Amino acid sequence: MNDFAAMSELHVLRNFYESGATRPYEFRKQQLLLLKAAVLKYEQEIYVALHTDLKKSAEEAYATESGLVLAEINLALRQLRRWMKPRRILPDLVNLPSSGRIHADPLGVVLIIAPWNYPLQLCLIPLVGAIAAGNCAVLKPSELAPATSAIIQKIISEIYPPAYIKVVEGDGSVVIPEMMQQFRFDHVFYTGSIPVGKIIYQLAAKTLTPVTLELGGKSPAIVEKDADITVSTRRIVLGKFANAGQTCVAPDYVLVHEDIAEAFTRKLVQTIQDFFGKDAQKSADYGKIINARRFDQLASYLKDGELVYGGKTDRTSLYFSPTVLKNITAGSAIMTDEIFGPVLPILTFSTTEEAAAIVRQHPDPLAFYLFTSDKVKEKTWLDQTRFGGGCVNNTVWHFANHRFPFGGIGNSGIGAYHGKHSFNTFSHEKAVMKTPLWLDPAIKYPPFKGKLKWFKRFIR
Ligand code: NAD
Prior knowledge:
GO molecular function: aldehyde dehydrogenase (NAD+) activity
Largest sheet: 7 strands, mixed
Family: Belongs to the aldehyde dehydrogenase family.
CATH architecture of the largest domain: 3-Layer(aba) Sandwich
Bound molecules: nicotinamide-adenine-dinucleotide
GO biological process, one term: aldehyde metabolic process
Radius of gyration: 25 Å
CATH class of the largest domain: Alpha Beta
Helix content: 40-55%
Structural class: alpha/beta
Low-confidence stretches: none
Distance between the termini: 62 Å
Pfam families: Aldedh
Keywords: NAD, Oxidoreductase
CATH superfamily of the largest domain: Aldehyde Dehydrogenase, Chain A, domain 1
Strand order of the largest sheet: 10-13-14-9-8-15-16
Number of strands: 20
Strand content: 15-25%
Number of domains: 2
């Protein structure tokens, strides 16, 4: 059966949801255990798929994909009972002696749309939240990572009935509008680019469907004069060149204080060679570009600055070496686009104000990284900069701590997830007040004449 035929079956998920089957704690727990067992069972196939799509090593695939999914499931399994427990709320004066509770209600049938760069975890981590919160879900993996999309399809169809969790594959620009026009989802959780995020938002607006949008942007790494050069270069190189730079929270560009720019750049190049060797094409730890379209886009950035290191490419194998540029041409595409690949422009600054002005040209980055040993500078930067999340003296690893909410702000997204934040994203906080019958004072009912002074005493 093709995906179009499958779309007309979406109402089956609604029926399953409305049967109430997904609500009990035991059901949710069992589904999380099934997912965990399947991710473990298909560990090797997952590695093969991620290697096929993006040339990820097993180590990288575990640390940045399947391991994070397992950690997310384990956290949900440990905390689920507590998350599901209705929260007691103190009554206000007017409503005494009522009691109050906030119930975490499932949303219903949700759509999860994933991109290609971390194609497993960006599909399954939101799913963990959706299951934990008691929803049915449709998963739309990225067609640009077909091997991973296929293993997701295989796992999900093996462990879940399609009336509960369903995978829809295919060209997103066709199947997603079709689905969203034919069926009203209760929530759409989208991860991907800003332009497609806007399309999803518009489609959702037609039916007032709430959305979470996990988008991208130009995330800066600021290196102040007092930064530790050795540690900062290691952490920037790891964050920038993991997955060949195709990471939404990768440092997009570096802004380094002019006094240390030379020493920093020298160390950066040395660190790239230490990590990936003189020829990164031979490194098992270095990935490939997803497709020729992205490869050509990245190659076009090479003219936007002076080559410091790298620039070696092989279109046939989609190899694009770790590349560092300096003396960036003002207003060039490399400084307006989200680079999303292994090209690192290095810009310099002399004052914090000057650096802040450059950061403000690309408002609301998804991530922000600051390297400094100075607490005052740290506070100044954190106070003055709007960003989704980030690190001081590190890059990208905040993503892995599922106790943090992960999400953007403004241009970089709407909403957040991971751990309890995912549970909240996929739940509705239903407020319920319960009032006993034994007290029902006449003051609450008409006629109200003469009661104003009492109202003023109780309502304030
Ligand atoms: P994309 O927008 O091209 O694709 C994402 C998903 O949208 C895919 O499943 C695709 O099928 C679907 N899609 C594509 N075109 C569509 C259309 N016209 N209508 C409806 N759906 C459509 O994004 P991408 O290129 O896969 O991912 C790269 C972008 O994602 C970067 O900007 C990156 O920063 C961002 N990203 C963000 C995060 C995050 O967590 N915030 C994570 C990874 C990637």
